């Protein structure tokens, strides 16, 4: 039996693993896809102490992997399917194995919401798709920090970028607003949303907005950043979920179960707050 299983290999999960391993615990970190979680996909990691000027999601992801390896923390790429309490802890069943542990830290993070139209046409992340947007018209659906950061990155390669959001003004931080306002190739459409698309020869040639605006191009690319919802299915029976997020504190109402990172309902979701959560979860689970 393990002392602690950490489910989720993003910043929160890696942070929890580092603090638990440093306290001599026998641990295992489980991650369903790749170490880093969503942050491993972003075009730029910013506003976190020590990151480089041009830190990308993949480069930040590699730093997390290097930290796990240098601390000799075991991890496995497996999907946690079920979590059950036992007489002396928990049973975690994955798509490959079964594990038992005295305690569990759930840091399963979030998934991005999908656009209800043209799901087969849309992408979430620009990094790695630079060639597909070169010289094209691109629509970024969303006006948050994440959406605007991706729009600014895409604008380096695309012919023009259209940011579309439902609010009457951009919701991103001032740093991104100033960059968007200074960019001749970025156009902002507020108080509206995507209504429909028109296709020709297998390509999207028109994006229709519900305010009557039409965005046209030869193969319009659509990127979606319209919010997140917590990956709570695994723990829904052990906690209260509101608006898709866990409302428990880091130390949950279930003895031996802890929550860390963006799965929690909180005011600020950033790498910094995820790492802080992971630190506290790792330390508390060791007591």
Automatic annotation (TrEMBL):
Keywords: Flavoprotein, Oxidoreductase. One of its GO terms (molecular function) is oxidoreductase activity. The lineage of its organism: Bacteria, Bacillati, Bacillota, Tissierellia, Tissierellales. It comes from Aedoeadaptatus coxii. This is Pyridine nucleotide-disulfide oxidoreductase. It comes from the Bacteria. Residues 3-278 form the FAD/NAD(P)-binding domain. Coiled coil: none annotated. The keyword Flavoprotein applies.
């Amino acid at each position: 039996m393990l002392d602690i299983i950490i489910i989720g290999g993003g910043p929160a999960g890696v942070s929890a693993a580092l603090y638990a391993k440093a306290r001599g615990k026998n641990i295992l970190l489980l991650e369903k896809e790749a170490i880093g979680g969503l942050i491993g996909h972003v075009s730029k990691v910013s506003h976190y102490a020590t990151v480089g000027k041009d830190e990308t999601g993949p480069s930040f992801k590699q730093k997390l992997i290097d930290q796990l390896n240098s601390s000799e923390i075991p991890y496995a790429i497996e999907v946690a399917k079920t979590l059950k309490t036992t007489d002396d802890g928990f049973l975690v069943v994955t798509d490959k194995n079964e594990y038992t542990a005295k305690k569990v830290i759930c840091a399963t993070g979030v998934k991005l919401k999908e656009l209800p139209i043209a799901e087969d046409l849309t992408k979430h992340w620009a990094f790695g798709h630079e060639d597909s947007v070169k010289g094209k018209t691109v629509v970024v659906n969303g006006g948050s920090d994440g959406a605007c950061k991706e729009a600014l990155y895409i604008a380096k390669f695309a012919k023009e970028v259209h940011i579309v959001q439902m609010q009457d003004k951009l919701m991103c931080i001032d740093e991104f607003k100033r960059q968007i306002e200074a960019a001749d190739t970025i156009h902002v459409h507020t108080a509206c949303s995507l209504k429909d698309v028109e296709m020709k020869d297998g390509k999207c040639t028109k994006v229709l907005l519900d305010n009557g605006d039409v965005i046209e191009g030869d193969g319009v690319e659509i990127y979606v950043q319209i919010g997140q919802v917590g990956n709570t299915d695994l723990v829904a029976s052990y906690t209260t979920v509101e608006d898709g997020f866990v409302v428990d504190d880091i130390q949950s109402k279930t003895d031996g179960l802890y929550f860390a990172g963006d799965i929690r309902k909180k005011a600020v979701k950033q790498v910094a707050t995820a790492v802080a959560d992971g630190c506290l979860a790792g330390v508390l689970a060791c007591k």
